[in-house]
Amino acid sequence: MKFYRQLALIYLTLSMTGGAVQAIEQDTVEDLLRQMTLQEKIDQLSQLGIQTTPTGPVIDYGELSPAPINTVGSVLGAYGVEQTRRLQEQAVNQSRLHIPLLFAFDVIHGYRTIFPVPLAEAAAWDADLAYRTARAAAVEATASGVHWTYAPMVDIARDPRWGRVVEGAGEDPFLGAALAAAKVRGFHGAGPPDRSFMLATAKHFVAYGAAEGGRDYNVADVSERTLREVYFPPFQAAVAAGVDAIMPSFNELAGVPLHSNTALLSDVLRNQWRFTGLTISDANAVWELSQHGIADVPGDAARLAFNAGIDIEMVSHAYRGFLPSLVRNGLVPVAAVDDAVRRVLKAKQRLGLFADPYRYSDEARQRASVLTPQHRALAREAAQQSIVLLKNTDALLPLPKHLRNLLVVGSLATDAQATIGPWSAQGRADDSITILQGIRNAVAPNTEVVYLPDASPLSQKVQNLPAIRQAAQKAQVVIAVLGESADQSGEAHSRADLGLPGNQDVVLRALLDAGQPVIIVLMNGRPLVLSENVQRAPALLETWFLGTEMGSAVADILFGDVSPSGKLPITFARSVGQIPLYYAHKNTGRPPREGESWVSAYIDTPWSPLYPFGFGLSYTTFSYSTPRLSADRIASTDTLTVQVSVTNTGQRAGDEIVQLYLRDDVASVTRPVRQLRGFRKVHLEAGETRSVSFTLDAQDFALLDEHWLPVVEAGRFTVFVGADSTTANQAWFDVTDSRALSETGLSRPP
Ligand code: GLC
């Protein structure tokens, strides 16, 4: 410990002159590297998994053993001041070089205060909100000893059968990129040496959401163009925002597993994007290269993964078991091992762990930072903003708080675990406000709230229907809370049938047949295929899994304290047979037109979605003027201003997420019929009109040429501005010349 005390003294003394400190820090890393044995280096590239809830299958590693706690580089699944301090003491005091541990954990949408699942929060279309919830999560996690989160998950998903759609920001690269960057900045905060600075990881690189059949871990086979135009942008935005680590995905891409994909992990990530952070495998994914059939022994898997560009092996022990001999046999360059270890040590240095290995394990800070009233208030705000009103016939919502009685039906209404959804870190179900509690808290004291749990996503059994129908007949209003349980989406929880699981649809029919107004509150981790019964209901709220304050936020919307403003970040198909279905589709040579023959459509189902990307209603209404453009012809180096006047034409204030889409009408390659290129949330009082303007430039018009370089091509563009991705509110302009984006002086990340 003497060494670190001296170092801390030097660090503090010299902290006035940054350069000198950097020199000291650089020396520390190089000094350590010079002293480390090959095995010590390789143990720094191993990560020990000790999490109590498994995040993957149990694997037999044969005679291989994990690196011991006092030489392993990092630990997955340790949290809390007591545990992290104890493990850190072992590592620092019982090792030859006293190298501190990194503690990593999946802090995806909150640590103890749980915020809406990422797909829900994406419905708020609010980068500032995404920043604030990530910041709050980082404050809580770092106060509890966690240095590193495996978030944000930035996988674009256009197939809701895939269980992990819940963890990302939906189907659109532009929205996904904006939120990815905000999350990275949120986890970072003021950055080192602030103790609430947390390392962030963009995952899972790449095209994991393109799994065939929506089946998790399955093959993804996308074109190079789709890969670069759809799946890359959120990762590029995360890298540009300074993300500290990248985690490859389990899938293969065009025959090459991502965990042995040199072209993507080294050529693209390191050489093209200049990413200098860490790469860490997914759980056991190095070991599983043998399952892919490209490695016949774990040693081969270790060689392929490391040489492809994966610094750290998570949980499995192929690196520890085989890299030493691979280096000695010249199959893995020792210089590459040094580079990887250097990145690990630098991460520890950025966190200030060489100066003080225990600075993140502070009991007083943990007590003061976790589940605070401020964080609960933020959780409630985020939940309110994430709710999407899909239907509200005859303005049935909002409900008055002084009803004589109302009936709440559905086991999900009291399912506290469901409120926090998958990947809930240290969130506790009993911290949560359930939907039933939220309703009870909101209504007038003399309003009778009757509750029947009978509709369940987990049981096909239907009983008690007469009693349910009778209760519904007596109620002024019925609130049916339907959807999925917390573990019917998430990793390894793909579904082939996207209808309401269990007995819910049958119970819903009984409720509807009773004749009283039925409001459906959906709790789900993915777009569902909404049955005819669901579509019979006069009001429909999409509330996803909203976190610790879910019940309060749902009640805030149901009873009108807050007007809903969320917009769908992902398309809701009419049938699972339509999937994949997304707004930024190509026109084809025979574009789909309802009622026409010989077009790209179905003979048994309308081709269009039930609810499109960007759709969401409010308790008020809005109108849009035709877009006004600053010019109708511009050079590729010019900017274009698009203005639109938005009016609140209803009787109460509300927030509207104004969306701007662009279409390149004719280009050297086919282009989507529209692509999101701007969004802005505006608050308007009843009757108020506001001018909203967007500035577009070559970055927005560019496409990738055959060498995957961004270029602007001369030609006509259509700009759409409206309330969702189907808006026909449009204007046109021409770009007069073609040039490479690099020649326009623009180089901001996507
Ligand atoms: C899981 C997930 C990954 C997570 C990791 C550690 O398999 O794919 O997202 O970060 O294991 O829990």
UniProtKB/TrEMBL annotation:
EC primary class: hydrolase
Leader sequence residues: 1-23
Family: Belongs to the glycosyl hydrolase 3 family.
SMART domains found in the cross-reference section: Fn3_like (SM01217)
GO molecular function per UniProt: beta-glucosidase activity
Keywords associated with the record: Glycosidase, Hydrolase, Signal
Gene3D superfamilies in UniProt: Glycoside hydrolase family 3 C-terminal domain, Glycoside hydrolase, family 3, N-terminal domain, Immunoglobulins
Domain Fibronectin type III-like intervals: 656-725
InterPro entries referenced in this protein's UniProt entry, alphabetically: Cellulose_Degrad_GH3, Fn3-like, GH, Glyco_hydro_3_C, Glyco_hydro_3_C_sf, Glyco_hydro_3_N, Glyco_hydro_3_N_sf, Ig-like_fold
E.C. designation(s): 3.2.1.21
Pfam hit, one: Fn3-like
Name recorded for this polypeptide: beta-glucosidase
Catalytic activity: Hydrolysis of terminal, non-reducing beta-D-glucosyl residues with release of beta-D-glucose
Keyword Signal appears in the UniProt entry: yes
